[in-house]
């Protein structure tokens, strides 16, 4: 089975839609997605993901089922400098958390516990686990038991923060490492597929992460949403 995770285009957060650039990115994305032979498509309930998906779905001649658990990862945490989303911490803060690099214990931190981050993660993991089992793969420990081997292609249109939660479950990695050491730019495509080297036992392997080649084909560069300034003195780039 292959999972294709697509991040929404450059966001207009105020209106939960896309910026003018975001719509152009979504159009470039659709030119690539029209060639994807998907068996099923799913979308976040948030407008920026649905708007992004709309152009691709039209060219794919498909519809997407809305799943509540594909929404952006939502917990709000009281961080040392300001209150904000659970995944947006300064490097000097999150790297000092005692379990930030531990898949099983990364939420064991007072600020995360107060924001009920574990409850949100467990809800997403539970929904994702049920989804995967329905499609033939059940997680047992760090691997997956193959209930119904298949080559289905499933597309998720969602969000970077949530994408890292899904990848953490598939790859047994703590989300903090994915949130802060990778970037899936707007309309980027991440592909994860099963590998079954022994019959009945599978693992998911990432074949591509944050691919934005469709933007370069369209003569565009990836938007900076989700990234921060390369040099602290680069005042024209994002700081917070």
CATH H level: which superfamily?
A: Phosphoglycerate mutase-like
Task: Give the termini distance in whole angstroms.
Answer: 38 Å
Name the helix and strand elements from N-terminus to C-terminus, one letter apiece.
EEEHEHEEEHHHEEEHHEEH
The CATH topology assignment is Rossmann fold
* Percent of residues in beta strands: 15-25%
Query: Please, how many domains?
Result: 1
- Which runs of at least 5 residues are low in confidence (pLDDT < 50)? none
How many individual helices?
Answer: 8
| Rg calc | 18 Å
The helix/strand class is alpha/beta
Label the CATH architecture: 3-Layer(aba) Sandwich
How many extended strands?
Answer: 12
- Overall spatial form: globular
Strand order of the largest sheet: 5-4-10-1-11-12-9-8
> Please, what is the average pLDDT?
96
Overall CATH class: Alpha Beta
Measured as a percent range, the helix fraction is 25-40%
Give the biggest sheet.
8 strands, mixed
Verbal overview:
The chain is α/β, with parallel strands linked by helices and 240 residues long. The chain has one domain: 3-Layer(aba) Sandwich (Rossmann fold), CATH 3.40.50.1240. Helices cover 33% and strands 24% of the residues. It has eight helices and twelve strands. It has helices spanning 20-33, 47-60, 91-94, 110-114, 117-134, 160-171, 175-181, 213-217; strands at residues 2-7, 11-12, 17-18, 40-43, 65-66, 76-78, 83-85, 137-140, 143-146, 153-158, 189-198, 201-211. The strands form three sheets. The chain has an eight-stranded mixed beta sheet with strand order 5-4-10-1-11-12-9-8. β4, α2 and β5 form a beta-alpha-beta unit. α6 packs across α7. The longest helix is centred in the middle third of the chain and has 18 residues, at 117-134. The termini are far apart. The model has no long low-confidence stretch (mean pLDDT 96).
């Amino acid at each position: 089975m292959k999972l294709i995770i697509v991040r929404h285009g450059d966001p207009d957060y105020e209106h939960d839609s896309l910026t003018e650039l975001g719509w152009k990115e979504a159009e470039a994305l659709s030119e690539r997605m029209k060639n994807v032979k998907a068996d099923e498509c799913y979308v976040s309930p948030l407008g920026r993901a649905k708007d992004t998906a709309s152009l691709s779905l039209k060219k794919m001649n498909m519809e997407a089922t809305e799943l509540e658990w594909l929404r952006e990862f939502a917990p709000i945490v009281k961080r040392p400098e300001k209150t904000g989303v659970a995944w947006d911490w300064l490097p000097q803060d999150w790297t000092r958390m005692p379990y930030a690099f531990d898949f099983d214990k990364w939420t064991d931190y007072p600020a995360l516990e107060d924001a009920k981050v574990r409850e949100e993660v467990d809800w997403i993991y539970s929904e994702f686990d049920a989804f995967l089992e329905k499609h033939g793969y059940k997680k047992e420990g760090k691997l997956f038991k193959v209930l119904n081997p298949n080559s289905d292609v499933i597309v998720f249109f969602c969000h970077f923060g949530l994408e890292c939660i899904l990848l953490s479950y598939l790859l047994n990695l703590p989300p903090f490492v994915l949130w802060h050491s990778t970037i899936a730019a707007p309309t980027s495509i991440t592909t994860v597929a099963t590998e079954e080297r022994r019959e009945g036992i599978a693992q998911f392997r990432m074949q591509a992460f944050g691919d934005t080649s469709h933007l370069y084909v369209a003569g565009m560069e990836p938007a900076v949403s989700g990234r921060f300034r390369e040099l602290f003195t680069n005042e024209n780039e994002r700081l917070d």
